[in-house]
Every structure is written in structure tokens, then in C-alpha cells.
Amino acid sequence: MTKSQAKNVHPIALAFYGDCVYEVLVRRRVVLSGANVRKLHALSVEKVRASYQAAGARMLMEQSLLSEEEMDILRRGRNAKSPVPKSATVGDYRLATGLEALFGYLSLIGDDERVSELFELVFSSSN
Q1: Which of 23, 80, 94, 100 is the most buried (most CB within 10 A)?
Q2: pLDDT for the residue numbered 81
Q3: Known catalytic residues?
């Protein structure tokens, strides 16, 4: 998909797809870590919850690790209106949605290298 086409995808749709991209990366990391099989789900859930993703998004923004284009995608995702689950604050959920939209966008345009780079930054920022 071209950048232009991906930018025309609704931010919630980008986040929907990006959530899958991010979760697969988390699950892969958890499985490869050699974690106890009984703890795989708990370890994964910890890394995909809105508060964790929001912290990662904040870190990326505060350290100016995103390009202007990436910041725009993250902002669009953050500002898109969607129901907020009771398990998250509005602020955290919106930032997490922005991060997921960014992962979705980058994956759709085929920039897997950048997806991996950002994932490593987010995943390792809270370890």
C-alpha cells in the first residue's frame, strides 16, 4: 500500500490493524524469552495494555524519536473518537490508540524495519 493510500485509512482502522501487529510482536518476544508456558498470557497482557502502550507513546514523543509524518499518524489515532474501556483512563487509551495506528500505518506501507525499531524502543523502555 502506498503512503497516500494508508493515510486515507481511518485512524481507528489503522489502530485496529496496528493492535494486531503490536500484539504479534509482543507474543513473539514473550515466547522467545523462554517464559514459563503458564505465564505467557499474563506476560503478554502486561505489555499490550493501554497504560503500557501509552507510556511507550509518551517516551517516543518526549524523546523526539518520531518523524513529523509518524507524529501526524500518532496524533490522528490519538484524536479519533472511540469507546474507552473501563480498564483504561481516557488519556492512556487515546495515546495507546495513537501508537497502534502508527504501527498499523507502518505495517501497511511495508516499513517492517521501522515497525521493529519502534517496537524495540517501546518494549525495552519499561523493562
Answers
A1: 100
A2: 86
A3: 19
